[in-house]
């Protein structure tokens, strides 16, 4: 039973840089096909930081509660919700609003429905005590999977989609991952699970995050991966995953990929490229974008987390109370931790 109908929330209230603050918000009222979740943990995403620093490339519905990487317990059920019970431990997908009749949704690819609105930018997210969620977004999590790990299901799904679904990858392949953030490290971990040899590339300031990559059996490289990429037969890496979020890294990816190889771009960057794409043509390379995830991916990732096949513990840099959101954001922004987790 909810007694106090207000709770603290991390709100992104305007498009200007730094427009994030803690506000008291009213507990949402759920619709017939929604549930109310009591949020147990919510991860801070690179995209939350981008909205905070105002260098994001997507439209935001201000003011909005941040947070789309979350899990919790069901505390209220909408009238037409079936198959779910109070108290169940769940994670939620991020596509809060979709058009079920959009041809992409009909194909099961509702993540690619252009009218889709996600938690934390399109509708209120989970950096608060209670969030309303359409029941179709829910997935059960095993009892033994701690909430603070379960909230990393979402970024793990991003990595699964990029590496397993959208990339051609075979055991023994050489894979370069650019960017040692959460998505980069999780992409590297997924590639390792698929039997690849993996190197994660970062800058000098990324030493600490690159150490984590080594825990997943990856090589860690500062700046230039050409030698590593060429060390088998001199031709380059089978797959380069660009998880850096800067347009310029596409140039590096084109340099390091082998002829007939693939570049999968999962990092965002609003800057224009400013270089020739001729290498793509000359090397006969596939350039593949990868965005978000859908229902079957969530089920696979929960299985991987539940069995311990994918261990996200090395990525978690700490758990902060929601009131300390600023410190959690700062630590991640400066690369002191890979993933900050909040506890509302
Ligand atoms: Zn995210």
Quick structural overview:
By secondary structure, the chain is of the alpha/beta class.
Structural features, described:
With 344 residues, this protein is an alpha/beta fold. It has eleven helices and 16 strands. The chain has helices at 46-52, 103-106, 147-150, 153-165, 182-193, 207-215, 226-230, 249-256, 278-282, 295-307, 325-333, and strands at 6-12, 20-26, 34-43, 64-65, 69-77, 89-92, 130-134, 138-140, 174-178, 197-202, 219-222, 237-242, 257-265, 286-289, 316-321, 339-343. Strands 3, 5, 6, 7, 8, 15 and 16 form a seven-stranded mixed beta sheet that branches. A six-stranded parallel beta sheet has the order 11-10-9-12-13-14, with helices on both faces. Helix 11 (325-333) links the parallel strand 15 (316-321) and strand 16. Helix 4 packs across helix 5 (182-193) and helix 4 crosses helix 10 (295-307). 48% of the residues are buried. The mean pLDDT is 96. Bound molecules: zinc ion (ZN). The site of zinc ion has 6 residues, from helix 4.
Please give the share of residues in helix: 25-40%
Name the bound molecules.
Answer: zinc ion
General shape: globular
H-E string: EEEHEEEHEEHHEHEHEHEHEHEHEHE
Q: Strand tally, please?
A: 16
Total number of helices = 11
Taking pLDDT < 50 over at least 5 consecutive residues as the criterion, the unreliable ranges are none
Strand content: 25-35%
- SS-based class: alpha/beta
- Rg to the nearest angstrom? 20 Å
Rounded mean pLDDT is: 96
**Largest β sheet strand count, sense and barrel closure:** 7 strands, mixed
Could you give the distance between the termini? 17 Å
């Amino acid at each position: 039973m909810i007694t106090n109908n207000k709770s603290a929330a991390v709100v992104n209230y305007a498009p200007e840089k730094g427009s994030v603050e803690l506000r008291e918000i009213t507990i949402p009222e759920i619709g017939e096909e929604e549930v109310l979740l009591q949020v147990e943990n919510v991860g801070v995403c690179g995209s939350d930081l981008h909205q905070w620093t105002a260098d994001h490339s997507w439209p935001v519905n201000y003011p909005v509660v941040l947070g789309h990487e979350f899990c919790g317990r069901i505390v209220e059920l909408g009238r037409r919700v079936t198959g779910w019970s109070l108290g169940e431990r769940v994670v939620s997908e991020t596509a809060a609003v979709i058009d079920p009749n959009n041809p992409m949704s009909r194909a099961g690819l509702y993540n690619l429905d252009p009218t889709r609105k996600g938690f934390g930018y399109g509708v209120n997210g989970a950096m608060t005590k209670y969030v309303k969620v359409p029941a179709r977004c829910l997935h059960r999590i095993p009892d033994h999977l701690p909430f603070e790990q379960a909230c990393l299901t979402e970024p793990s799904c991003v990595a699964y989609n990029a590496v397993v679904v959208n990339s051609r990858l075979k055991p023994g392949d050489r894979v370069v991952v650019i960017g040692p953030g959460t998505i980069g490290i999780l992409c590297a971990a997924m590639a390792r699970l698929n039997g690849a040899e993996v190197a994660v590339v970062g800058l000098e300031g990324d030493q600490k995050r690159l150490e984590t990559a080594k825990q997943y059996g990856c090589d860690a490289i500062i700046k230039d991966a050409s030698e590593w990429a060429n060390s088998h037969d001199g031709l380059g890496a089978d797959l380069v995953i660009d998880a850096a979020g800067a347009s310029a890294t596409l140039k590096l990816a084109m340099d390091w990929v082998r002829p007939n190889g693939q570049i999968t771009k999962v990092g965002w960057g609003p800057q224009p490229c400013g270089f020739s794409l001729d290498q793509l043509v000359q090397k006969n390379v596939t350039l593949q974008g990868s965005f978000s995830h859908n229902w079957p991916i969530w089920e696979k990732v929960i299985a991987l987390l539940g069995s311990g096949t994918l261990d996200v513990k090395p990525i978690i840099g700490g758990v902060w109370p929601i009131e300390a959101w600023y410190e959690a954001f700062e630590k991640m922004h400066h690369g002191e931790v890979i993933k900050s987790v909040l506890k509302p």
